[in-house]
C-alpha cells in the first residue's frame, strides 16, 4: 500500500480518500458472505435452513397438483385406512380423506397465513415503534395510549367475534384479522431500543447536520437495530404458525372444509384418535414442532450475522 502511495504521490486528497475506501470495501466481506459463513460454521442451523426451505417449496409446489375440493370429499371405503399403503401414504381420517394430501394443503395454508401475518404485523409494528421511540414527547405519549388501548382488548375473543360475524372469509381475510392485533409486541420492543439509540452521538450529529428525521429513522437507527428486528421477525413467524393452528383447533380459524394444521390436530379431541388412529393428528403435530425449532435455529444464526456485520461496519 505504501509503494502504491509513493507511486501516486501527485494524486489529490479526494482520490486518496476514494482509493482508501475502495480498499476497505474490498477487505470487508459482504453481508451475504457473513451470513453464509455463519451457517457453514453452525451445522444444526444449516440443516434447519435446508429443512425450512425444502419443506416450504415442497408444500407450495405440491399443493398446486392437488384438487382440494375433490380431496375433501367423503370416501366411505377409505374409513380410517392404515398408513403406508399405496393409496394412503399417511393413512386416512374418519371421512376416508388422505392425511398426506391434507397435510400438504394444510401446511401451505398455515405457512402462507404465518408468512403474511409476519410481514404485515412486523412491518407495521417496526414502523410504529421507530416513530414512537424517535420523536418521543407528545407523539410518543399519544401513540402509546393507542397501544395501551389495543392491549386492553381481549385479543382472542375479538378475533373469534370478527370471524363469527364475517359471513364468508378465507385465508387472506383471516390474515388481515390477525394483523390488527399482532403488531403490539413488536412495536413495544422496537420502541424501547429506539429510545436508547436516539440518545446516541451519531443521531445528535445527524440532527445537527440537518439530516431529515425520516432518513435518521430508516437509514441510521433501523440498520443499527437490525439484529433485534431479525430475531423478532423469525420468532414471530414461528409464533404465527401457532396462532392459526390454535384458533383452527378451537374451530375459529379457517373454515372446516379448508384443511390446515390446526384442523388436523383437532382430530386429537377424540380419545380414540389419540390411541388407535394416531396418524390423523401426529404428523401435523410433529411438523409444527420441527418447523418451530428449525426457525429458532435459523433466527439465532441471522442474529449473529447481523451483529458481526454491524461490528465490522462500525470498525470501518
Automatic annotation (TrEMBL):
Residues 107-299 form the ABC transmembrane type-1 domain. Keywords: Cell membrane, Membrane, Transmembrane, Transmembrane helix, Transport. It comes from the Bacteria. It holds the Pfam family OppC_N. The keyword NAD does not apply. One of its GO terms (cellular component) is plasma membrane. The keyword Transmembrane applies. It is found in: Cell membrane. Its main location: membrane. The chain crosses the membrane at residues 45-66, 111-135, 155-183, 278-302. GO terms for biological process: transmembrane transport. SUPFAM superfamilies: MetI-like (SSF161098). It is a multi-pass membrane protein. PROSITE patterns: ABC_TM1 (PS50928). Belongs to the binding-protein-dependent transport system permease family. This is ABC-type dipeptide oligopeptide nickel transport system, permease component. It comes from Levilactobacillus parabrevis ATCC 53295.
